[in-house]
Design goal:
Layout: H1 3-15, H2 21-30, H3 47-56, E1 71-76, E2 82-88, E3 92-98, H4 112-118, E4 133-137, E5 140-150, E6 155-160, E7 165-171, E8 176-183, E9 191-198, E10 200-201, E11 214-222, E12 228-234, E13 241-243, E14 249-254, H5 263-266, E15 271-278, H6 279-287, E16 301-303, E17 311-317, E18 323-325, E19 331-335, E20 342-346, H7 350-354, E21 364-366, E22 374-379, E23 384-389, E24 394-399, H8 400-407, E25 415-420, E26 425-430, E27 442-447, E28 463-469, E29 476-483, E30 490-494, H9 512-520, E31 530-534, E32 537-545, E33 548-549, E34 553-557, E35 560-568, E36 577-581, E37 586-590, E38 595-602, E39 606-611, E40 624-630
Parallel strand pairs: 12-16, 32-35, 34-40
Antiparallel strand pairs: 1-2, 1-30, 2-3, 4-5, 5-6, 6-7, 8-9, 9-11, 10-11, 11-12, 13-14, 14-15, 15-17, 18-19, 19-20, 20-21, 22-23, 23-24, 24-25, 26-27, 27-28, 28-29, 31-32, 32-33, 35-38, 36-37, 36-39, 39-40
The structure holds sulfanyl-(tricuprio-$l^{4}-sulfanyl)copper, dinuclear copper ion (CUA) and calcium ion.
Length: about 625
């Protein structure tokens, strides 16, 4: 242990009873490599003081039994691979939407319907999702789709918000690790913009491992078809991204302008950059045929490296991370991470910088000094910004107009408040902040470490998602919410902006392939309980009405590939059935008016019970049947 560490540990022991230790210890050890080191985090509040602050909060946090929340929250499940739906302000978890993971309860990853989305040859059982975002029309949530990235396996998924199920997943070709993801806000979400984080050689076939010949790309997907519309080659790497309110520009941070392959190298430059993409010019270049293709993919690839008319590289300090558009549409704000500053980019100056009328740095209109480790910024719609300080474990509230005045030499204080959070915050998100409707009521802070905030549960700790009332002049911390790994980001949407179905309609495309197969077999999913033998393939069609399956016994031969289709004829809200075959790894959800199907090999002769595994009726236990497998 180094001297410094030893000292920190002694400090830790001394201050344990004061509740100071974690904050100081992390602060002291995490600053290596940070420029412009200021003091450590501010005053530490006692638990009692927090409780008092929560009581004083202006917004009502209490959602009583039977009452409904004001907002939906959509949380990324991080490397757990799912999306979670919470109610705000209660912070109650309402639903989980499996996406890149396998889910035993709903059968996601097991059913044919989910494999239609994941790919029947999909071999990835994991994902790493960070950035959930909801489609927009004219800069406002339209409640249609939610999109989310998979950094681990370079994919983008779409969730239909009417049924809250994933309906499309696209693997992005030619690149590795989709990280930052945002949507075009205006005039509507035509494109899903997403960054591939790491540079790779092209072709990446083992013939060349050099960094010099490596590059990465900015990607745009068509939000309806989920096909990749185009890709843009860039200098450096790509981290986070956001889009503007004109439909013309998107901006991405780059922390590895050095194109280093090791940590120290990525910190060599004092400035990296924000790369701004001119969407109109890129579309024009594609239209003009001014592109190439890479490898086997047919996606148009344009070259946006320096000197390209398609991009501008705005130098900003240092290993920037988040970039967030202010809801008034005026600014892209990039957080410095290794610089204690944020860079405020004036979007109305971008035309001039693309026309070479002004210098690159002329678009920077403020560079407020905020504290250590700024990562992400969010807004209240009243001119204030809220930036997470990872190293200081704080949220800093600051005023954008005052920061601009200060940058212009006026003697004004742009800092409004610093509030301790627990601990090491990554993203934060104010209610409706990324839309024109930013209402400045709630702020969620996704703290990466919870330390001692919850009952201990072994070495692996939950994260701590904290809720802060920002409706007044002062931020008030009102709730701690433990979360399993690892919500990088979340969004909040007014509840009237999401319209969900209570039961499926029979023509839902979610089970279109089951319907198509039934038609081929000459049966109707809703009416028939039939077994179709097709060589070694057996298709068992059955209905379900609580508490009974339409087929309670069927016979197959050992080695048959069996597909069971269950159509739930119940029309009563909340009567979901399940289907599980004992010892066959089969489990699925069949909600009212839904059809689900699953395919497995009946490889064991004998009697195999199947049963309903979603509690549906007083006689739910009795909702069973037998699969009889004859010896081959
Ligand atoms: Cu964790 Cu947006 Cu992937 Cu920042 S990201 S913290
Ligand atoms: Cu049907 Cu439980
Ligand atoms: Ca760097």
């Amino acid at each position: 242990m180094s001297k410094d560490h030893e000292q920190d540990h002694k400090e830790l022991a001394k201050t344990e009873h004061l509740g100071l230790s974690r904050r100081r210890f992390l602060g002291a050890t995490a600053v290596a490599g940070v420029a412009g080191v200021a003091g450590l985090g501010g005053a530490v509040m006692s638990r009692e003081a927090f409780a008092a602050a929560a009581k004083e909060a202006r917004n009502n946090i209490h959602v009583g039994p039977g009452e409904l929340d004001e907002y939906y929250g959509f949380w990324s499940g991080g490397h757990q691979g799912e999306v979670r739906v919470l109610g705000i302000p209660s912070m109650r978890e309402l639903m989980r939407i499996p996406v890149f993971n396998v889910d035993s309860a709903t059968g996601w990853g097991l059913t044919n319907e989910s494999k239609d989305v994941l790919g029947h040859d999909n071999t990835f059982l994991n994902g790493d999702c960070h950035h959930p975002h909801i489609s927009m029309t004219d800069g406002r949530y339209d409640g249609k789709y939610l999109f989310i990235n998979d950094k681990a396996n370079t994919r983008v998924a779409r969730i239909r918000l009417d049924i809250m199920k994933c309906d499309k997943i696209t693997h992005i070709p030619n690149v590795q690790a989709i990280h930052g993801l945002r949507l075009q806000k205006v005039p509507y979400t035509k494109y899903v913009f997403c960054n591939a984080e790491y540079v790779i050689p092209h072709p990446n076939d083992g013939s060349d491992f050099s960094m010099e010949n490596s590059y990465t790309m900015f990607n745009a997907l068509d939000a309806e078809t989920m096909e990749v519309a185009w890709q843009v080659i860039v200098d450096g790497n790509l981290d986070n991204t956001d889009a503007d309110y004109t439909g013309k520009y998107a901006a991405s941070t780059c922390y590895n302008s050095e194109k280093a392959k090791e940590l120290a190298g990525t910190m060599r430059n004092d400035r990296d950059w924000v790369v701004v993409f001119n969407v109109e010019r890129i579309e024009q270049a594609v239209k003009n045929g001014d592109f190439k293709t890479v490898g086997d993919s047919k996606v148009p690839v344009v070259d946006g490296r320096s000197k390209s008319p398609l991009t501008r590289y705005i130098p900003v300090p240092k290993n920037p991370h988040g970039v967030n558009t202010s809801p008034d549409g005026k600014y892209f704000i990039a957080a410095g991470k290794l610089s204690p500053t944020c860079s405020v980019i004036a979007i109305d100056k971008l035309d001039d910088v693309f026309d070479d009328k002004i210098e690159l740095r002329d678009v920077i209109v403020a560079e407020p000094e905020l504290g250590l480790g700024p990562l992400h910024t969010t807004y209240d719609g009243r001119g204030n910004a809220y930036t997470t300080l990872f190293i200081d474990s704080q949220i800093v509230k600051w005023n954008i107009a005052d920061a601009i005045k200060h940058y212009n030499g006026e003697d004004v204080n742009y800092l409004r408040q610093k509030l301790d959070v627990h601990y090491q915050p990554g993203h934060n998100h104010a209610s409706l902040t990324e839309s024109r409707d930013a209402d400045g009521k709630w702020l969620v802070v996704l703290s990466k470490f919870s330390k001692d905030r919850f009952l201990p549960v072994g070495p692996l700790h939950p994260e701590n998602d904290q809720l802060i009332d920002i409706s007044g002049d002062e931020m008030k911390l009102v709730h701690d919410g433990p979360a399993f790994a690892e919500p990088h980001d979340c969004i909040m949407v007014r509840r009237d902006q999401i319209k969900t179905k209570k039961i499926y309609t029979r023509d839902d495309p979610y089970f279109a392939s089951a319907r198509a197969q039934a038609e081929k077999d000459g049966i109707t999913l809703e009416g028939d309980n039939k077994i179709i033998r097709d060589g070694k393939k057996v298709r068992v069609y059955m209905t379900s009405v609580a508490p009974i399956y339409g087929t309670t016994e069927f016979t197959v031969k050992q080695g048959d590939e069996v597909t069971v289709y269950v159509t739930n004829l119940d029309t009563i809200e909340d009567v979901t059935h399940g289907f599980s075959v004992v010892n066959h790894g089969v489990s699925m959800e069949i909600s009212p008016q839904q059809t689900s199907s699953v395919t497995f090999v009946a490889d064991k002769p004998g009697v195999h019970w199947y049963y309903c595994n979603w509690f549906c009726h007083a006689l739910h236990m009795e909702m069973t049947g037998r699969m009889l497998v004859e010896k081959a």
